[in-house]
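Render this sequence as a predicted structure.
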Amino acid sequence: MATFSLPHQSHLFSSSTLQTRTRPRCTISTKVRMSLQETGPSLAVVGVTGAVGQEFLSVLSDRDFPYRSIKMLASKRSAGRRLPFQDKEYVIEELTAESFNGVDIALFSAGGSISREFGPVAVDKGTIVVDNSSAFRMDEKVPLVIPEVNPEAMENIKLENGKGALIANPNCSTIICLVAATPLHRRAKVKRMVVSTYQAASGAGAAAMEELEQQTREVLDGRPPTCKIFKQQYAFNLFSHNASIQLSGYNEEEMKMVKETKKIWNDPDVKVTATCIRVPVMRAHAESVNLQFEKPLDEDTARDILKNAPGIVVIDDRATNHFPTPLEVSNKDDVAVGRIRRDLSQDGNQGLDIFVCGDQIRKGAALNAIQIAEMLL
Protein backbone atom coordinates (compact mmCIF):
# COMPACT_ATOMS: atom_id res chain seq x y z
CA MET A 1 0.00 0.00 0.00
CA ALA A 2 1.30 3.46 -0.83
CA THR A 3 2.31 5.63 2.04
CA PHE A 4 0.41 8.81 2.82
CA SER A 5 1.97 11.77 4.57
CA LEU A 6 -0.31 13.50 7.03
CA PRO A 7 0.24 17.17 7.80
CA HIS A 8 0.81 18.02 11.41
CA GLN A 9 -2.49 18.01 13.29
CA SER A 10 -2.34 21.73 14.09
CA HIS A 11 -2.44 22.40 10.34
CA LEU A 12 -4.92 19.69 9.53
CA PHE A 13 -7.47 20.51 12.18
CA SER A 14 -7.24 24.25 12.82
CA SER A 15 -7.91 25.67 9.37
CA SER A 16 -11.45 26.67 8.49
CA THR A 17 -13.29 28.89 6.07
CA LEU A 18 -16.00 29.53 8.65
CA GLN A 19 -16.01 33.00 10.17
CA THR A 20 -17.73 32.46 13.50
CA ARG A 21 -18.52 35.21 15.95
CA THR A 22 -15.64 34.50 18.27
CA ARG A 23 -14.91 37.18 20.80
CA PRO A 24 -12.38 39.62 19.34
CA ARG A 25 -9.13 40.19 21.14
CA CYS A 26 -9.34 43.30 23.25
CA THR A 27 -7.15 46.21 22.20
CA ILE A 28 -6.25 47.37 25.68
CA SER A 29 -3.43 49.85 26.13
CA THR A 30 -0.37 48.66 28.00
CA LYS A 31 -1.08 51.08 30.86
CA VAL A 32 -4.67 49.88 31.29
CA ARG A 33 -3.61 46.24 30.93
CA MET A 34 -1.05 46.65 33.70
CA SER A 35 -3.72 48.22 35.90
CA LEU A 36 -6.07 45.30 35.27
CA GLN A 37 -3.34 42.80 36.07
CA GLU A 38 -2.47 44.57 39.31
CA THR A 39 -6.08 44.39 40.51
CA GLY A 40 -7.07 41.10 38.87
CA PRO A 41 -7.35 37.76 40.62
CA SER A 42 -4.52 35.32 41.24
CA LEU A 43 -4.99 32.16 39.18
CA ALA A 44 -3.92 28.54 39.28
CA VAL A 45 -4.25 26.08 36.39
CA VAL A 46 -4.41 22.50 37.63
CA GLY A 47 -3.47 19.92 34.99
CA VAL A 48 -1.72 22.51 32.87
CA THR A 49 0.14 19.97 30.72
CA GLY A 50 -3.03 18.25 29.47
CA ALA A 51 -5.04 19.10 26.37
CA VAL A 52 -7.62 21.13 28.32
CA GLY A 53 -4.97 22.68 30.55
CA GLN A 54 -3.16 23.97 27.49
CA GLU A 55 -6.44 25.24 26.09
CA PHE A 56 -7.08 27.10 29.37
CA LEU A 57 -3.94 29.10 28.65
CA SER A 58 -4.93 29.72 25.05
CA VAL A 59 -8.37 31.02 26.04
CA LEU A 60 -7.00 33.17 28.87
CA SER A 61 -4.71 34.81 26.34
CA ASP A 62 -7.32 35.14 23.59
CA ARG A 63 -9.81 36.82 25.93
CA ASP A 64 -7.27 39.03 27.70
CA PHE A 65 -8.38 37.67 31.06
CA PRO A 66 -7.01 40.01 33.74
CA TYR A 67 -4.90 38.35 36.41
CA ARG A 68 -2.10 39.52 38.69
CA SER A 69 -0.39 36.15 38.97
CA ILE A 70 -0.74 32.60 37.67
CA LYS A 71 0.50 29.23 38.92
CA MET A 72 1.09 26.31 36.57
CA LEU A 73 0.29 23.09 38.45
CA ALA A 74 0.64 19.47 37.38
CA SER A 75 1.80 16.07 38.61
CA LYS A 76 5.17 15.39 40.17
CA ARG A 77 6.56 14.02 36.90
CA SER A 78 5.92 17.36 35.16
CA ALA A 79 7.23 19.54 37.99
CA GLY A 80 10.27 21.60 37.08
CA ARG A 81 9.48 21.82 33.37
CA ARG A 82 9.46 25.32 31.93
CA LEU A 83 6.36 26.57 30.16
CA PRO A 84 6.24 29.77 28.08
CA PHE A 85 3.05 31.83 28.34
CA GLN A 86 2.38 35.42 27.29
CA ASP A 87 6.02 36.42 26.85
CA LYS A 88 7.04 34.91 30.19
CA GLU A 89 8.43 31.56 31.22
CA TYR A 90 6.89 29.71 34.14
CA VAL A 91 8.14 26.71 36.08
CA ILE A 92 5.49 24.01 36.45
CA GLU A 93 4.92 23.22 40.12
CA GLU A 94 3.86 19.94 41.67
CA LEU A 95 0.25 20.05 42.87
CA THR A 96 0.09 19.94 46.67
CA ALA A 97 -2.26 21.12 49.39
CA GLU A 98 -0.12 24.26 49.73
CA SER A 99 -0.49 25.17 46.06
CA PHE A 100 -3.64 27.21 46.71
CA ASN A 101 -2.26 29.62 49.28
CA GLY A 102 -3.20 33.08 48.04
CA VAL A 103 -5.02 31.76 44.95
CA ASP A 104 -8.35 33.40 44.09
CA ILE A 105 -9.50 31.20 41.18
CA ALA A 106 -8.32 27.69 40.32
CA LEU A 107 -9.13 26.09 36.97
CA PHE A 108 -9.10 22.30 37.36
CA SER A 109 -8.73 19.77 34.56
CA ALA A 110 -6.75 16.88 35.99
CA GLY A 111 -9.39 14.16 36.38
CA GLY A 112 -12.05 13.35 38.94
CA SER A 113 -9.80 11.79 41.58
CA ILE A 114 -7.54 14.87 41.67
CA SER A 115 -10.56 17.16 41.86
CA ARG A 116 -12.09 15.19 44.72
CA GLU A 117 -8.81 15.29 46.64
CA PHE A 118 -7.70 18.87 46.05
CA GLY A 119 -10.93 20.73 45.20
CA PRO A 120 -12.18 20.89 48.81
CA VAL A 121 -8.65 21.73 49.99
CA ALA A 122 -8.57 24.72 47.68
CA VAL A 123 -12.05 25.85 48.78
CA ASP A 124 -10.99 25.69 52.43
CA LYS A 125 -8.17 28.09 51.57
CA GLY A 126 -10.64 30.60 50.09
CA THR A 127 -10.19 29.63 46.42
CA ILE A 128 -13.07 29.49 43.96
CA VAL A 129 -12.62 26.27 42.01
CA VAL A 130 -13.98 25.86 38.47
CA ASP A 131 -13.79 22.11 37.95
CA ASN A 132 -13.87 20.42 34.57
CA SER A 133 -14.26 16.86 35.89
CA SER A 134 -17.46 14.97 36.73
CA ALA A 135 -16.58 14.84 40.44
CA PHE A 136 -19.04 17.46 41.70
CA ARG A 137 -21.50 17.93 38.83
CA MET A 138 -24.42 16.18 40.48
CA ASP A 139 -23.73 17.52 43.98
CA GLU A 140 -26.85 19.55 44.78
CA LYS A 141 -24.72 22.13 46.60
CA VAL A 142 -22.47 22.73 43.58
CA PRO A 143 -23.76 24.86 40.67
CA LEU A 144 -23.43 23.25 37.24
CA VAL A 145 -23.05 26.17 34.86
CA ILE A 146 -23.15 27.06 31.18
CA PRO A 147 -22.92 30.89 31.12
CA GLU A 148 -25.24 31.26 28.10
CA VAL A 149 -27.79 28.92 29.71
CA ASN A 150 -28.02 29.25 33.51
CA PRO A 151 -25.76 32.03 34.85
CA GLU A 152 -28.19 32.52 37.73
CA ALA A 153 -26.99 29.22 39.25
CA MET A 154 -23.82 30.95 40.48
CA GLU A 155 -25.20 34.42 41.19
CA ASN A 156 -24.23 34.23 44.88
CA ILE A 157 -20.59 33.34 44.16
CA LYS A 158 -18.29 36.32 43.65
CA LEU A 159 -14.63 37.02 44.28
CA GLU A 160 -15.57 40.01 46.39
CA ASN A 161 -17.24 37.69 48.90
CA GLY A 162 -13.81 36.38 49.87
CA LYS A 163 -15.08 32.83 50.25
CA GLY A 164 -14.05 29.62 48.56
CA ALA A 165 -16.57 27.74 46.43
CA LEU A 166 -16.92 24.97 43.89
CA ILE A 167 -18.44 25.48 40.44
CA ALA A 168 -18.74 22.54 38.07
CA ASN A 169 -18.23 22.63 34.31
CA PRO A 170 -20.77 20.30 32.62
CA ASN A 171 -19.78 17.45 30.35
CA CYS A 172 -18.64 18.58 26.90
CA SER A 173 -21.50 16.93 25.01
CA THR A 174 -24.03 18.49 27.39
CA ILE A 175 -22.56 21.97 26.96
CA ILE A 176 -22.57 21.81 23.16
CA CYS A 177 -26.11 20.43 23.08
CA LEU A 178 -27.67 22.85 25.56
CA VAL A 179 -26.09 26.00 24.12
CA ALA A 180 -28.13 25.18 21.01
CA ALA A 181 -31.27 23.71 22.58
CA THR A 182 -31.83 26.20 25.40
CA PRO A 183 -32.96 29.21 23.33
CA LEU A 184 -35.65 26.97 21.79
CA HIS A 185 -36.50 25.51 25.20
CA ARG A 186 -37.07 29.02 26.55
CA ARG A 187 -39.56 29.75 23.77
CA ALA A 188 -41.54 26.51 23.56
CA LYS A 189 -40.40 24.29 26.50
CA VAL A 190 -38.79 21.01 25.60
CA LYS A 191 -40.76 17.97 26.79
CA ARG A 192 -38.44 15.34 25.32
CA MET A 193 -34.98 15.43 23.77
CA VAL A 194 -33.32 12.62 21.80
CA VAL A 195 -29.60 13.10 21.19
CA SER A 196 -27.12 11.12 19.10
CA THR A 197 -23.55 12.28 19.52
CA TYR A 198 -20.52 11.88 17.25
CA GLN A 199 -17.65 12.53 19.64
CA ALA A 200 -14.06 13.44 18.86
CA ALA A 201 -10.81 11.98 20.15
CA SER A 202 -10.11 15.10 22.20
CA GLY A 203 -12.76 14.06 24.71
CA ALA A 204 -10.42 11.25 25.76
CA GLY A 205 -7.43 13.58 26.09
CA ALA A 206 -4.24 14.43 24.25
CA ALA A 207 -3.06 10.81 24.19
CA ALA A 208 -6.20 9.74 22.31
CA MET A 209 -5.66 12.51 19.75
CA GLU A 210 -2.09 11.33 19.25
CA GLU A 211 -3.22 7.72 18.91
CA LEU A 212 -5.79 8.64 16.26
CA GLU A 213 -3.09 10.34 14.21
CA GLN A 214 -0.71 7.41 14.75
CA GLN A 215 -3.37 4.85 13.78
CA THR A 216 -4.23 6.79 10.64
CA ARG A 217 -0.61 6.62 9.50
CA GLU A 218 -0.35 2.93 10.42
CA VAL A 219 -3.52 1.87 8.62
CA LEU A 220 -2.63 3.82 5.49
CA ASP A 221 0.79 2.17 5.55
CA GLY A 222 -0.82 -1.27 5.80
CA ARG A 223 0.35 -1.85 9.38
CA PRO A 224 -1.79 -2.99 12.33
CA PRO A 225 -3.01 -0.03 14.39
CA THR A 226 -1.68 0.70 17.86
CA CYS A 227 -4.62 0.38 20.28
CA LYS A 228 -3.65 1.63 23.74
CA ILE A 229 -6.25 4.28 24.59
CA PHE A 230 -9.12 2.48 22.90
CA LYS A 231 -9.21 -1.30 22.67
CA GLN A 232 -10.16 -1.33 19.01
CA GLN A 233 -9.23 0.45 15.80
CA TYR A 234 -10.30 4.11 15.88
CA ALA A 235 -8.97 5.37 12.54
CA PHE A 236 -11.55 4.92 9.74
CA ASN A 237 -14.00 3.45 12.26
CA LEU A 238 -16.61 4.44 14.81
CA PHE A 239 -17.94 2.70 17.90
CA SER A 240 -20.03 3.15 21.02
CA HIS A 241 -18.50 5.63 23.46
CA ASN A 242 -15.90 3.96 25.63
CA ALA A 243 -17.52 4.98 28.94
CA SER A 244 -18.58 2.07 31.13
CA ILE A 245 -21.95 0.45 30.45
CA GLN A 246 -24.53 0.51 33.24
CA LEU A 247 -27.16 -2.12 34.04
CA SER A 248 -29.71 -0.11 32.06
CA GLY A 249 -27.65 -0.56 28.90
CA TYR A 250 -26.80 3.16 28.81
CA ASN A 251 -23.17 4.16 29.23
CA GLU A 252 -21.96 6.80 31.67
CA GLU A 253 -21.52 9.42 28.96
CA GLU A 254 -25.16 9.05 27.93
CA MET A 255 -26.38 9.27 31.51
CA LYS A 256 -24.33 12.42 32.08
CA MET A 257 -26.34 14.12 29.38
CA VAL A 258 -29.62 12.89 30.90
CA LYS A 259 -28.83 13.94 34.47
CA GLU A 260 -26.96 17.15 33.71
CA THR A 261 -29.70 18.48 31.42
CA LYS A 262 -32.29 18.05 34.18
CA LYS A 263 -30.07 19.90 36.66
CA ILE A 264 -29.01 22.74 34.35
CA TRP A 265 -32.57 23.36 33.15
CA ASN A 266 -33.87 22.88 36.71
CA ASP A 267 -36.49 20.57 35.24
CA PRO A 268 -36.65 17.04 36.68
CA ASP A 269 -39.53 16.15 34.36
CA VAL A 270 -37.83 16.76 31.01
CA LYS A 271 -37.28 13.46 29.21
CA VAL A 272 -33.83 12.94 27.73
CA THR A 273 -32.31 9.94 25.97
CA ALA A 274 -28.90 9.77 24.32
CA THR A 275 -26.69 7.50 22.22
CA CYS A 276 -23.02 8.51 22.33
CA ILE A 277 -20.59 7.38 19.62
CA ARG A 278 -16.85 7.89 19.13
CA VAL A 279 -15.93 9.00 15.61
CA PRO A 280 -12.43 9.53 14.14
CA VAL A 281 -12.48 13.31 14.39
CA MET A 282 -9.71 15.19 16.20
CA ARG A 283 -11.29 17.83 18.47
CA ALA A 284 -14.92 18.81 17.74
CA HIS A 285 -18.14 16.98 18.64
CA ALA A 286 -21.23 16.76 16.44
CA GLU A 287 -24.73 16.00 17.74
CA SER A 288 -28.07 15.21 16.15
CA VAL A 289 -30.79 16.59 18.42
CA ASN A 290 -34.52 15.87 18.19
CA LEU A 291 -36.75 18.14 20.27
CA GLN A 292 -40.39 17.71 21.23
CA PHE A 293 -42.08 20.87 22.57
CA GLU A 294 -45.04 21.70 24.76
CA LYS A 295 -45.84 24.73 22.57
CA PRO A 296 -45.71 24.92 18.77
CA LEU A 297 -42.48 26.25 17.27
CA ASP A 298 -42.01 26.43 13.52
CA GLU A 299 -38.62 26.08 11.88
CA ASP A 300 -38.41 29.67 10.60
CA THR A 301 -39.03 31.09 14.07
CA ALA A 302 -36.52 28.63 15.52
CA ARG A 303 -33.92 29.72 12.98
CA ASP A 304 -34.40 33.38 13.90
CA ILE A 305 -34.16 32.57 17.61
CA LEU A 306 -30.90 30.70 17.09
CA LYS A 307 -29.41 33.45 14.91
CA ASN A 308 -29.85 35.91 17.78
CA ALA A 309 -28.75 33.59 20.61
CA PRO A 310 -25.38 34.06 22.34
CA GLY A 311 -22.60 31.63 21.52
CA ILE A 312 -24.29 30.30 18.37
CA VAL A 313 -23.64 30.63 14.65
CA VAL A 314 -26.26 29.27 12.24
CA ILE A 315 -25.02 27.36 9.17
CA ASP A 316 -28.17 26.19 7.44
CA ASP A 317 -27.82 26.48 3.68
CA ARG A 318 -30.14 23.95 2.06
CA ALA A 319 -29.48 25.22 -1.45
CA THR A 320 -25.81 24.21 -1.32
CA ASN A 321 -26.23 21.41 1.24
CA HIS A 322 -23.89 23.28 3.59
CA PHE A 323 -24.39 22.58 7.29
CA PRO A 324 -22.12 22.45 10.38
CA THR A 325 -19.07 20.19 10.32
CA PRO A 326 -16.58 19.40 13.09
CA LEU A 327 -13.68 20.68 11.01
CA GLU A 328 -15.30 24.09 10.54
CA VAL A 329 -15.84 24.67 14.26
CA SER A 330 -12.44 23.39 15.42
CA ASN A 331 -10.62 26.12 17.35
CA LYS A 332 -13.75 28.29 17.28
CA ASP A 333 -15.71 29.62 20.25
CA ASP A 334 -19.22 29.38 18.85
CA VAL A 335 -21.45 26.34 18.60
CA ALA A 336 -22.70 25.88 15.03
CA VAL A 337 -26.31 24.86 14.37
CA GLY A 338 -27.92 23.69 11.14
CA ARG A 339 -30.29 21.12 9.57
CA ILE A 340 -33.10 23.06 11.30
CA ARG A 341 -36.28 21.35 10.19
CA ARG A 342 -39.71 20.30 11.38
CA ASP A 343 -39.95 16.79 12.77
CA LEU A 344 -42.36 15.18 10.29
CA SER A 345 -43.14 12.37 12.73
CA GLN A 346 -44.94 14.82 15.03
CA ASP A 347 -48.19 16.64 14.36
CA GLY A 348 -48.06 20.35 13.57
CA ASN A 349 -45.02 22.26 14.81
CA GLN A 350 -44.49 20.32 18.02
CA GLY A 351 -41.02 19.05 17.12
CA LEU A 352 -37.76 20.03 15.45
CA ASP A 353 -34.56 18.34 14.36
CA ILE A 354 -31.26 20.22 14.54
CA PHE A 355 -27.61 19.31 13.92
CA VAL A 356 -25.00 20.83 16.20
CA CYS A 357 -21.18 21.02 16.15
CA GLY A 358 -18.86 22.49 18.76
CA ASP A 359 -15.18 22.39 19.66
CA GLN A 360 -14.92 19.90 22.52
CA ILE A 361 -11.72 21.27 24.04
CA ARG A 362 -12.76 24.89 23.70
CA LYS A 363 -16.47 25.50 24.33
CA GLY A 364 -16.90 21.97 25.63
CA ALA A 365 -14.27 22.53 28.32
CA ALA A 366 -11.78 25.41 28.57
CA LEU A 367 -13.80 28.30 27.17
CA ASN A 368 -16.84 27.47 29.29
CA ALA A 369 -14.64 27.44 32.40
CA ILE A 370 -13.04 30.79 31.54
CA GLN A 371 -16.47 32.30 30.90
CA ILE A 372 -17.46 31.14 34.38
CA ALA A 373 -14.32 32.76 35.78
CA GLU A 374 -15.18 36.00 33.99
CA MET A 375 -18.56 36.03 35.71
CA LEU A 376 -16.78 35.99 39.07
CA LEU A 377 -15.00 39.30 38.43
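Summary. Residues 174-361 form a domain with the Dihydrodipicolinate Reductase; domain 2 fold (CATH 3.30.360.10). The chain has a mean pLDDT of 91.
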